[in-house]
Amino acid sequence: MNKFFKILVLIILNFLLFYQICFAFEEKLKIGLLVPLTGENKDIGKQIVKSTRIALKDINSSRIEIFPRDTGSDPDKTIKSAVELKEIGVKIVIGPVFHKSLNYLGDLNDILFVSLTNKTLDLPNNTISGGVNATSQLDAIKKFIELNELKKTVFLTPKLDYEKEIKKAIKQSKIKIYKHYIYNTEPTKLTAQIEKITNYKTRKQNLLDEIKRVENSELPDKEGQLEKLKKKIYYR
Questions:
Q1: Buried b vs exposed e over 173-210: b needs ≥16 C-beta within 10 Å?
Q2: Please, how many CA atoms are within 13 Å of residue 209, restricted to the half-sphere of its CB?
Q3: How many other CB atoms are there within 10 angstroms of residue 88's CB atom?
Q4: Residue 194: what pLDDT?
Q5: How far apart (Å, rounded) are the C-alpha atoms in residues 18 and 22?
Q6: What pLDDT digit, counting tens, does each position of 80-139 carry?
Q7: How confident is the model at residue 181 (pLDDT cuts 50, 70, 90)?
Q8: What residue segments make up the domains of the chain, in order of their start?
Q9: pLDDT for residue 67 is more than 90
């Protein structure tokens, strides 16, 4: 069970890390973790927290911070914990685990929830189902794409034993995708693949060229612009 949660969380974290690198966000990515840490399902919650820490260690990135919060498998406690995450600036949350815990989360429009349930009926608009069923996941993703009118969608599929299942589900869903990449889950290889996918070397060179241009200019806010540009270099 721990291995399953680790793979699932690893996929989600890799996707979010890819998104952050692609758009060159400077701040750390704060990710909430809504799981049952008390009550009858606390063992499941503890397994997910442990798997998340292992996955984070495997990724070996200082860009991501994880903030676990308890749901107690209860909708009221879940919304209270979700509000706490919102107050500290969390925009993306892995969880909750059970469908019933989603009851009130639709009110938090500023947060995207990647729930670990595989149920897709009556999901709030701000929730993606991250369950084990590939077809249900693709249906939820398609719904999210259509609701948010996204024009270019990139799919990252891990090179694992269920790769064919995901490819089949993508085909059946008829989602219009921009590009589809198969990536290696080994951290060192994954980093190189992300750099290739995001055209990292070209973008970095363009940034270096821009720094040089500003340095040789007589812009009134020259120092301020250089500071912002050099921060981007640091976070890359």
A1: bebeeeeeeebebeeeebbebbeebbebeebeeebeee
A2: 6
A3: 11
A4: 77
A5: 6
A6: 999 999 999 888 898 898 888 998 998 898 898 988 876 666 788 888 876 655 666 677
A7: confident
A8: 2-148, 199-236
A9: yes
| Of the options 3.40.50.2300, 3.40.1170.20, 1.10.10.10, 3.40.1160.10, the CATH number for the domain spanning 2-148 | 3.40.50.2300
Q: What's the 3-state SS for the chain?
A: CHHHHHHHHHHHHHHHHHHHHHCCCCCCEEEEEEECCCCCCHHHHHHHHHHHHHHHHHHCCCCEEEEEEECCCCHHHHHHHHHHHHHCCCCEEECCCCHHHHCCHHHCCCCEEEECCCCCCCCCCCEEECCCCHHHHHHHHHHHHHHCCCCCCEEEEECCCCHHHHHHHHHHHCCCCCEEEEECCCHHHHHHHHHHHCCHHHHHHHHHHHHHHHHCCCCCCHHHHHHHHHHHHHHC
Phi, psi for 124 (deg, rounded to 5): -60, 155
Q: What is the CA radius of gyration of the chain?
A: 19
Of the pLDDT bands very low, low, confident and very high (cuts 50, 70, 90), residue 77 is: very high
Q: How far apart are CA 69 and CA 82, in angstroms?
A: 8
Task: At 84, list the tokens.
Answer: 């706490």
pLDDT surpasses 70 at 33:
yes
Segment 139-165, tens digit of pLDDT: 777 888 888 787 778 887 777 766 776
